[in-house]
Structures are given as C-alpha cells and as structure tokens.
Design a protein that fits this description.
4 helices, 38% helix
Length: 140
C-alpha cells in the first residue's frame, strides 16, 4: 500500500479546464511540499492541443501550457485514484463505478472559444478550487 494520494482531473477533451487544474495542482504540490500527491489528467475524447485561449490566460499566471498535449485517461488510471474531479463537462464515458475514490464535479463552463475575460474567470475559479482541495488534503 502507498501513502500517496492520487487526484485525477478529467474532462472530455482534456484541452482546457482539466489542463488548468493540473497546472495549478502541480504548482500547489510544489509550493506546499506535497510530494505524496500524485496528479493524473486526461480526457475521454482528447483534443489535438490545449485551447489557445487557455494557453494565453495561463501564461498570465506564469505557466506555459503551449507544449502540453491532451491525453486519454484510462479506466485503470481512475481505479487507482482517491479523488476524481470532473470539470462539469459531459464526461459520459467516465462512469463513477470505475473508480473506488471520491468523485467531485466542479460544474465549470467550457473555455473553448470564449473571450479572454470569460476564460480568466474560469481560470480563477479553478485556481481557487485547486487550492481548497489541497487545503483539504493537508487536513486529512
């Protein structure tokens, strides 16, 4: 058994919300010295690239996602997760019965094709939710 806590950020395309959540989670893990938190991200139908508007607003936070590539998440990966966070997208292919951990749906708007102010609002909400999640993990 591992003392590691596994957190997955899942979306359909893995090209916006879940990528932002992953970037913020990696930052939180580093800043808090939370090496015991493993981060998984993926989509059920991944896009070819991270949405340009997401790359742009994350760059404003000093994070370069331009070379990040959306990937497919597997049921096997999710089975090993303690927390599976879906982004509010219709990830119908990701059935909660496929993992033993806790599922949370953050109900976020899709940033794809949105104006930058809307994408910034989504980014800021994700940043806050990720920080809150790490606060919770540290209390456990």
């Amino acid at each position: 058994m591992s003392d590691e806590t596994r957190v997955a950020f899942v979306c359909v395309q893995n090209a916006g919300r879940s990528q932002m959540a992953t970037a913020f989670a990696e930052r939180e893990r580093e800043e808090r010295g939370a090496e015991d938190v493993a981060i998984v991200t993926g989509g059920t139908d991944p896009a070819d690239h991270v949405h340009e508007e997401v790359v742009e607003v994350m760059r404003e936070r000093g994070m370069d996602l331009s070379d990040w590539t959306p990937r497919e998440v597997t049921h096997e990966e999710l089975q090993e997760c303690d927390y599976v966070v879906t982004m509010g997208c219709s990830a119908n292919d990701v059935c909660p019965a496929t993992w033993s951990g806790e599922n949370r749906d953050w109900g976020l708007d899709d940033p794809d094709g949105r104006d930058l102010d809307a994408v910034r609002a989504i980014r800021d909400e994700i940043e806050e939710r990720v920080a809150d999640l790490f606060d919770e993990l540290q209390r456990e």
